Amino acid sequence: MRAPSSDLPLVLDNVSLQAGATTILDRLNLTITPGAPTLIVGPNGSGKTTLLRLCMGLAAPSAGRVSWGGRVDSKPVRRAILFQRPVMLRRTAAANVAYALAQAGTPRRERAARVAVLLERVGLFDLAQRPARKLSGGEQQRLALARALARDPQILLLDEPTASLDPAATRGVEEIVLMAAQSGIKIVMASHDLGQVRRLAGEVIFMVRGALCERAPAAGFLDHPTTQEAAAFLRGDLVI
Amino acid sequence: MTDQLSAWQLILSGDAALFAIVWLSLAVSLSAVVLAALAGMPLGALLALTRFPGRSVLVVLLNALMGLPPVVVGLAVYLLLSRSGPLGGLGILFTPTAMVIAQTILIVPIIAALTRQTIEDLWAEYRDELTAMDVGPAGRMMTLLWDARFSLLTALLAGFGRAAAEVGAVMIVGGNIDGFTRTMTTAVALETSKGNLPLAMGLGLVLVAIVLAINAAAWGSRVWSERQAG
Amino acid sequence: MAFRSSSLALAVLFGAIVNFAPAGAEDRSIVVASTTSTQDSGLFGYLLPIFKAKTGIEVKVIAQGTGQALDTARRGDADVVFVHAKSQEEKFLAEGFGVKRFDVMYNDFVLIGPKSDPAGVKGKDIETALKTIQAKAAPFVSRGDRSGTHSAELALWKQAGIDISASKGPWYREIGQGMGAALNTAGAMNGYVLSDRGTWISFKNRGDLDIVVEGDKRLFNQYGVMLVNPEKYPSVKKELGQSFVDWLISAEGQAVIAGYKIDGQQLFFPDAEKKGS
Questions:
Q1: Domains and CATH numbers, chain B
Q2: Which of A116, C124, C126, C171 is the most buried (most CB within 10 A)?
Q3: ipTM metric
Q4: Host domain of residue C153
Q5: Each residue of B20-34: pLDDT tens digit?
Q6: Which residues in chain A have Cβ-Cβ distances shorter than 8 Å to B128?
Q7: Which residue out of A74, A82, A103, A106 would a mutagenesis test of the B interface target, given it has the greatest number of B Cβ atoms within 10 Å?
Q8: Which residue of chain B has the CA closest to A77?
Q9: Which residues are registered as beta bridge partners of B199?
Q10: pLDDT tens digits for B138-192?
Q11: Terminal CA-to-CA distance of chain C, rounded, Å?
Q12: What is the 3-state secondary structure (H, E, C) of B142-154?
């Protein structure tokens, strides 16, 4: 049994990240609490990916502090992340999910059943024995979701998961994300697609040049942005 | 020409002495590959995944040791196993066991160095996912080694090729004893020194054909495996 | 599933490796350090099965040059030495590495050269032939490997009054290899080479080579056998080794040696006296 601990609230306290001379994140202050999905938008290079990696614990800040449920330096027990291009282990789809379950500490005798449940949830039950590397892009992303959900996360981070997918595959992924949100998982997702923001978001975080520019409920942000940059971005201008 | 044909005739007629030589060559080299893999793969994976002072020196050294001259390894092992040497009490000089030991030493660097490169490349790809799944150090090594298995098979074949082809080490530590430690390569060397060049060439071609067959089998098994697991 | 079949393969291979584990004390075998020319003549292939059938002892022959064979015994890695360079053997004995030396058999050396005989030495005695070869700087191949044949060659140069280390030029090619290789090299460069008759008779790659000098008493090649001294190396298989020595010099062993023929020609002439030195 895992120790009852929480990765929420996720707090970034005056966080900066430098890579050499470049500032990627600039004095970010952010708190993520349970609730509706938070979508992160912004031009390329605004730091969305780096922010997500920091939230996951894959990167460490150069200054400031990241804490999960009050703990600093915590192992990623109740959180999971999805990348734009997931890495499939060289084995079947079912084995990939079983692997994630094993890493998350699921006892061996429960694994088979959990694998079936998770594959069903992401619509891959019939492809269980297919080699994961032979799945289509959309199927692979759904498998990555199954792996992430295997960890029973409180918070699910996603970095532009549908950027390379066609609309049908995108819809498949979005449905699963919404289901996860409805079951109480906090979604934090970077997106390039304003339509997706409209479909999924509870609130929006808008980033420019490594700083948090605007944060507002979805409808408010999309229809009545308060900052100039946000307005320019929504218009389709290049925000430099 | 007739002597060259005679080598093939011997194979086809099932000549016992020739089969014993072929069997010994394969048994010695394959055993060496298995042992070298057990030692070299974890070593290579460890080098790929850890960082410590002096690591780059070790990597360069390992790469350089891929070119260890077989005859030097043979000599070193001979001096170790000789009755007047430190391990003489084991009494294993001039036996197939000594040949396996010498060949294992010879090919561990090859397998370790190639494993290191393969795992290092794969780790760059898998790093985020495995860290995100909170996989521990031992788990990383096992997962990467298993996922890299097709590339690692090539490393094993490289090691096997080196072992099956060498003559210096097995000649010195085995003694090329008729019916006991004579392998295909030492048999070729012997027939050449006796002046039986066509027979030597025939034997050599038989060896090449066998190594080719093994590589073909490995390729086939890889194709089959990939179909199962991608 | 693939994992399980790999484990099975591993288990099979380990089984094979275990088969290689050195045999226990019941193992009736000895290691004999001998020379490549004796091996190449085919004598062992003929002699050893007969010995094994009689005694059940497996004889493992390590064939090297005489110098190397004696060194192998000096390191304790052989039970018996069977070589053909009396001066080197006597030195070995004097150093305490051998128990007793017995004459076993002799064969002879022959001078081999191109049929065209560019140096014009055919039919001469060996001393004159060597002097002529050196004077005309005709290509000559030397074993150069401290073998019995090499020792004999050096002794012959000395007897001919030639200091070969001083007067050797590019015509004198030391190859550091066995008799077959030396014959191959001589054939390839149309040169002369000293060979034992046994290797020459069974040598198949003759090309243009033939015997140019033979029968000279100075070309006599004596073989000796010694048990390696168990006081130096307790691991020496004393009883089994002594059985081999005893059999070689026994009437039966000597008859077998005389019985070995290639193309109807006897190669080795038994001459054991049994008293040894």
A1: 31-184 (1.10.3720.10)
A2: C126
A3: 0.89
A4: 108-219
A5: 899 999 999 999 999
A6: 53, 58, 81, 83, 87
A7: A103
A8: B134
A9: none
A10: 999 999 999 999 999 999 999 999 999 999 999 999 999 998 999 999 999 988 8
A11: 69
A12: HHHHHHCHHHHHH
